[in-house]
Amino acid sequence: MDLTKYKKVYLSGIGGIGISAIAKMMLELGKEVYGSDSFRSDITDDLKRRGVKVFYKQEANNITSDIDLLVYSPAVPVTSPELKKAKELKILFLSHFEFLGGLSKDYTTIAISGTHGKSTTTALLSMIMINAGLDPTIFVGSQICSINTNFRLGKSKYLVVEGDEYNFKMLKLHPDYIGLTSLDKDHLDVYGSLENIKKAFQEFVEKLNDPENLIYNIDDVNIKDLKISKKSFSVSITGDSLLYVSDVVKKYNKQYFNLHLCKKSKTSEQCKKLCEIETALPGYYNIYNILVASALAIKLGINPKIISETIKDFKGLWRRFEKLGKWKTNIIFSDYAHHPTAIKALLCGVRGFYQNKKIVIVFQPHQEDRTEKLFDEFLTSFDMADSIIICPIYKVSGRRKKAKVSSYDLFKEIKKSYLKEDQEIFYANDYKKIKGTIAKYSDAIILVVGAGDIDNFARHFLRYD
To answer: What is the strand order of the sheet 387-390 is part of?
Structure first.
């Protein structure tokens, strides 16, 4: 993809985390950058400070004939006035992943994909590669706290990119390496069934020219159903893999464990302790993320000492168990979890870190279709919380607007049939009610959870000490 021929670039849906990364890339390359979004946000404010002209009405008049390239978010329908005008003016327009797919042809591309853990694994690997001097270009689906961005322009041949599975987007990429974290039943509005998700990921892993460059979580029951070459690189907690962990210990809000690497030949297998890991990331789900990132780093020839030191110093990501501060006597965290599996894993991890504290989860369901199709799974997602506060569903632009169930139905059903004896549950349909509910707790862990705008409550509505 010859980016030198584009002087003026327009990003439609620029407030999305993926499109905002492309905007930052274009700025660093010296382009004129314009864009639009339906809503003002922290992301659009940041881009304006960097010099991007942002429109908050997505209309045809924004599109002028001197624009060379338009890249649009998956939230923007192809029938939008901006895309229609671009077509009329014969401006090249690409979807988010059509752009990244084209870019990936020009690099040695490392794609991190799977239902859960993509952003954290991508960020971990990115920081390891930076510290190893490999100078990668990076696209992450969240802000990496250490470098305060979701994009980094490197000068080397390496591109590290999060391979989002929504709407088959990862299939647009041309990966040289794949890290596959997990497969789960999600985005059923697109895939229809778990079997179709597996078929899509089978197609994805088969895009690799060299099966040895696939790193996969062998403990994942759904990944096990894929046809994976014996030459591929497996990771696990159980030990039945090339890279595995031992002696997991949790203390002082950290996890400690050892990494072991096995080398197999036709006649023998030799395993050795590679390094010790210390991390402030909670839960077994983050151990899997560390395993996949570490295995990719090993494939790239990075010294285990750099892997260990980077993970120890890793500061986390925006909205991934992100500690925002202390409100009254409670500690507030923001987290992006919006799938039943992710909520369970988060609560389990936080319980491991804060065994003697009350854990309160404020949950905003994300998208009507997911709430309806995974309703039964959501009912049992909150078992490890002491208190549950359910909020209205966040409606996603361009997605299904009606469902047979509401978040209030979820609240009622949990209260009726799934609430444990020592648990309590509330329904809060605005920020004032949420604040009033959490105000009664003291010295508790408050998790504000969801992929929608509930983060605004935690980040902007509360005033921290």
So the answer is: 322-327, 330-335, 445-449, 359-363, 387-390, 424-427
Asked whether residue 387 carries a pLDDT value surpassing 70, the answer given is yes
Segment 271-289, tens digit of pLDDT: 999 999 999 999 999 999 9
The helix/strand count (H/E) of the chain reads as 15, 21
Instruction: Tell me the whole-structure pTM to 2 decimals.
Output: 0.93
- Burial per residue of 255-293, b for 16 or more beta-carbon CB atoms within 10 angstroms, e otherwise: bebebbbbeeeeeeeeeeebbebebbbbbbbbbbbbbbb
Phi, psi of 199 (to 5 degrees): -60, -40
CB 135 within 8 A of CB 155: yes
Residues in the chain: 465
What are the two backbone dihedrals, phi and then psi, of residue 283, each rounded to the nearest 5 degrees?
A: 80, 160
**Confidence tier at 400 by pLDDT (50, 70, 90):** low
DSSP single-letter state for residue 61: G
Instruction: Report CA-CA distances (Å) from 64 to 13, 23, 91.
Output: 17, 18, 9
What would the two tokens of residue 141 be?
A: 């689906």
Q: Is residue 396 pLDDT above 90, yes or no?
A: no
Round to the nearest angstrom and report the end-to-end CA distance of the chain: 49
- Rounded CA gap, 19 and 99, in Å? 10
Over 90: is that where the pLDDT of 96 sits? yes
Distance CA 145, CA 149 (A): 7
- Residue 261's contacts (CB-CB under 8 Å, 6 or more residues apart) are 242, 243, 271, 272, 274, 298
